[in-house]
Amino acid sequence: MATSRPNGSLYTHIENKVATLEFGHPASNSFVSDLLDRLAKEFTKLSDDKNINVIILKSEGDRAFCAGASFDELVAVSTLEEGKIFFSGFANVINAMRTCSKIIVGRIQGKTVGGGVGLAAACDIVYATESASIRLSELTIGIAPFVIAPAVERKMGTAALSELSLRPTEWKTAYWAQEKGLFAKVYESISELDKELEFYTNSLSQYNPQALEDWKNVLWENTDHWDVLLPQRAAITGKLALSEFTKNTLEKFKK
After folding, report:
1. Whole-angstrom Cα distance, residue 104 to residue 218?
2. For site-directed labelling of 195, which of 113, 127, 141, 188 has its Cα 20 to 30 A away?
3. Nearest to 146 by CA among 159, 165, 171, 170
4. Distance of CA 232 to the CA centre of its chain
5. How open is the CA angle 68-8-70, to the nearest 5 degrees?
6. Per DSSP, what are the bridge partners of residue 45?
7. How would you class 158 by CB atoms within 10 Å of its CB: exposed for 0-12, middle for 13-18, buried for 19 or more?
8. Is 80 helix (H, G, I), strand (E, B) or coil?
9. Cβ distance 71 to 30 under 8 Å?
10. Burial of 239 (0-12, 13-18, 19+ CB in 10 A)
11. C-alpha to C-alpha distance for 253 and 104, rounded to whole angstroms
């Protein structure tokens, strides 16, 4: 059952060396700042847990995986510092995923927008369903996907990032995302996805944990500068969020 908590929910279940980290929010699994902060801290905590080798990242329900950042919080941003803090939420999560010593497997069951695409890109490997269409819609409100761009570009390449970001009203299919490298596997149904995901993660968790950690470090080579880069990008986005264009656009979306 989906959460009704305004600050969202976050649960971790550990079984057979696999930690399943599940987040939720009543607004299509979007992220308020508090939930992003909790998620970043949970990745850091699990990174040090010797009882697990693999982390599954998933969201609640059978519809949207993640609708990105909280619209209500974005509308409320009124200063440069607030803007930087707000957009640093995804920066902190992506960096926590990047530096996490465990292999992170994404489980994407439905549509994914903005920051949610960034989370998928920050996973080490992703399993998805046919319903997992993706979109980067930031330009439609006067900002751009500065914070998540490094993660998306690392996974999909500059050409795919350009196409996603410069066609901000267009949904790309799960198979397009697979072709471009964001998704490793795409399944027809959630039940099929979960069956294969369980088999895969249980197998992966039995491998030498030191080998998994060392190999993840290799996969993420040349990203150490993200600790500085992503907060800088958050500051740029926060400034744009205060622009007259963005404020006027957001007013039109208010209920």
Report:
1. 15
2. 113
3. 165
4. 19
5. 30
6. none
7. exposed
8. helix
9. yes
10. middle
11. 35
Element (H, E) at 174: helix 174-180
**Cα 122 to chain centroid, rounded:** 7
Q: How far is CA 80 from CA 34, 86, 246, in A?
A: 19, 10, 14
Is 0.90 topped by the overall pTM?
A: yes
Interatomic CA distance for residues 142 and 4, integer angstroms = 30
Residue 243 tokens read as 């622009």
With vertex at residue 183, the alpha carbon angle to CA 182 and CA 189, rounded to the nearest 5 degrees, is: 150
Give backbone dihedrals phi and psi of 144, rounded to 5 degrees, phi first: -150, 160
Dig out the tokens for 216 from the structure: 């993840």
pLDDT digits (tens, 9 = 90+) for 93-149: 999 999 999 999 999 999 999 999 999 999 999 999 999 999 999 999 999 999 999
Per residue in 47-68, pLDDT (tens digit) is 999 999 999 999 999 999 999 9
Helices 80-99/226-241 angle, 10° precision:
150
C-alpha 134/C-alpha 198 separation (Å) is: 24
DSSP H or E stretch at residue 84: helix 80-99
User: How far from chain centre, in Å, is Cα 14?
Assistant: 21
Q: Tokens for 126? A: 């992703």
- The tokens describing 40, both together, are 């970043």
- DSSP-derived 3-state class of residue 148: coil
In this predicted structure, which of 45-49, 68-72, 87-91 has the lowest mean pLDDT?
68-72
| Tokens (6 digits) for 202 | 């249980």
Q: What is the CA radius of gyration of the chain?
A: 17
3-state secondary structure (DSSP) of residue 61: coil
